[in-house]
Amino acid sequence: MNATVTPPPQPVPTTNRMTAEEFGLKHAGEHVEYINGEVKEFPMSGGGKHGKVCYRASMVVGQFVDATNWGHVFINDTFVKVPTKDDPDRVYGPDVCFISFERLPKDAEVTASTLTIIPNLVIEVRSPFDTWTSVFAKIVDYLNAGVSAVVLLDPTTQT
Predict the structure, then answer these.
(1) Please, are residues 114 and 135 in contact by the beta-carbon 8 Å criterion?
(2) Contact 72, 79 (CB under 8 A)
(3) Shortest CA distance to 70 belongs to which of 121, 116, 4, 19?
(4) Residue 89 and residue 20: Cα distance in Å, rounded?
(5) Residue 85: what are its φ and ψ, rounded to 5°?
(6) Alpha helices in 37-147 (DSSP H)
(7) Distance (Å, rounded) from C-alpha 25 to C-alpha 23?
(8) Residue 34 near residue 23 (C-beta atoms within 8 A)
(9) How far apart are CA 71 and CA 99, in angstroms?
(10) What is the pLDDT tens value at each position of the chain, 159 positions in all?
(11) What backbone torsions phi and psi does residue 72 show, to the nearest 5 degrees?
């Protein structure tokens, strides 16, 4: 006699995952990123020193971009979609990023939500709460998504 036992039904996982665009609209103005379907909150940056380094980096890039009329510069943790193999709606908030007019035309309307155009350049300023592991993981994600260059500035070591 062959008897088979049917296992009890397993709950079907429900996901409330947002798209990168939905995340951007819902969390505008918050100091968060969207990683693996979770909204990750970050403490405010590194205070005055962090803010000053971000400002100077944005000024250097901004002045050059304005003088050459090459593209757009975004600052202050503008949400940027950085798709990864395992997380197609990953969203980071780079401190400074540049997108050429080739990638985002000069007269194109810029979304009020998450930018979905991969930047040409990203500048991250390391905050005191950032671990080296998390910073380097983010750099790898940017590069794998198609960012041409990523610059990491560390105010603590002035490197």
Answers:
(1) no
(2) no
(3) 121
(4) 5
(5) -55, -45
(6) 48-68, 132-145
(7) 6
(8) yes
(9) 6
(10) 555 444 544 444 445 788 999 998 898 888 888 999 998 887 666 678 888 999 999 999 999 999 999 999 999 779 999 999 999 999 999 999 999 999 999 999 998 899 999 999 999 999 888 899 999 999 999 999 999 999 999 998 889
(11) -110, 145
Cα torsion at 87, 88, 94, 100 (round to 10°)? Answer: 150
Cα–Cα distance measured from residue 45 to residue 47, given in angstroms and rounded to the nearest whole number: 6
Residues 63 and 98 sit within 8 Å (Cβ to Cβ): no
Contact 76, 51 (CB under 8 A): no
Interior CA angle at 33 toward 144 and 72, to 5°?
65
- Would you say how long the chain is, in residues? 159
Residue pair 46/128 in contact (Cβ under 8 Å)? The answer is: yes
Tell me the CB-side half-sphere exposure of residue 78, using CA atoms within 13 A.
22
SS3 content of the chain, % helix, strand, coil (to 5): 25, 20, 55
d(CA 24, CA 21): 5
Q: How far apart are CA 82 and CA 98, in angstroms?
A: 14
Supply the pTM of this predicted model: 0.82
